[in-house]
Amino acid sequence: MDGHKRSTQIERLEVVETGRRRRWSDDEKLRIVLESLEAPRAISSTARRHGISRSLLMTWRRSFRPEPAGPDVKQT
């Protein structure tokens, strides 16, 4: 019977932030990416500090990564 009582309770749900999407300049993105590279395991803490998701920061890091050398470029 206790389970039934608990299922009829109403829980409160709060929406914390419903603002508009933020637009980040390339300079801001690069600054945040460089900050995330400063220390090992700094991705999650950097993302939290700037209010972005870890996956977005990883996407930015990939986009700022130098492009690999193509087959036309000889490596010595």
Compact summary:
The chain is mostly helical and 76 residues long. It has helices spanning 2-7, 26-37, 43-50, 54-64.
Q: Topology, please?
A:
Layout (H helix, E strand, L loop, with lengths): L1 H6 L18 H12 L5 H8 L3 H11 L12
Helix pairs in contact: 2-3, 2-4, 3-4
Relevant terms:
4 helices, mainly alpha, 76 residues
Structure description:
This protein has helices at 2-7, 26-37, 43-50, 54-64. By secondary structure, it is mainly α. It has a domain at 22-65. Helix 2 runs antiparallel to helix 3 (43-50), helix 2 (26-37) crosses helix 4 (54-64) and helix 3 (43-50) packs across helix 4. The longest helix has 12 residues, at 26-37. The mean pLDDT is 81.
* β-sheet strand percentage: under 5%
Q: What Rg, in angstroms, do the CA atoms define?
A: 21 Å
Give the number of DSSP strands: 0
Uncertain spans? none
Mean pLDDT: 81
> Share of helix among residues?
40-55%
What's the helix count?
4
* Structural shape: elongated
- Helices and strands, in order, run as HHHH
Structural class, judged by helices and strands?
mainly alpha
Distance between the terminal alpha carbons, to the nearest Å?
Answer: 75 Å
Largest sheet properties: none
